[in-house]
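Sequence, structure tokens reproduced for reference:
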Amino acid sequence: MNREQHQKVTPHHLKRAALLYVRQSTMRQVFENTESTKRQYALRDRAVALGWPREEIVVIDGDLGHTATAAGDREGFERVVTEVGMGRVGIVLGLEVSRLARNSSDWHRLLEISALADTLILDEDGVYNPKEFNDRLLLGLNRPDTQSSSYFNSL
């Protein structure tokens, strides 16, 4: 991570928990794509490198191997949204955006709540602050593919 990304993490963020959301859509993926699962759990080390103590990194992996099309069908994702909304989370970690949300509406709801709660988002590419215009733009472009074509067709 570059210096700018480290500067996004403030003592205010570090006083709150880091949430690591781990997800695979099916049990077959869990058993056959073990490298992806390992890479997701390895994001804990990124949180530690940014200053979070290991005991403040909460792993939410209840949706591992659970297929769902909406957030309401994924208790783990709902927990992420709830904890962020309650102001208890300094950063949400996920391997890629599609692991956090299955559709654009869920993803943008999480972005909006994260911006209001001053919660950062981390993926393999970097640290993002949804309150910052450029980061919000990048995060918006990285939304899950499940509804992107309908979004562009509506413009």
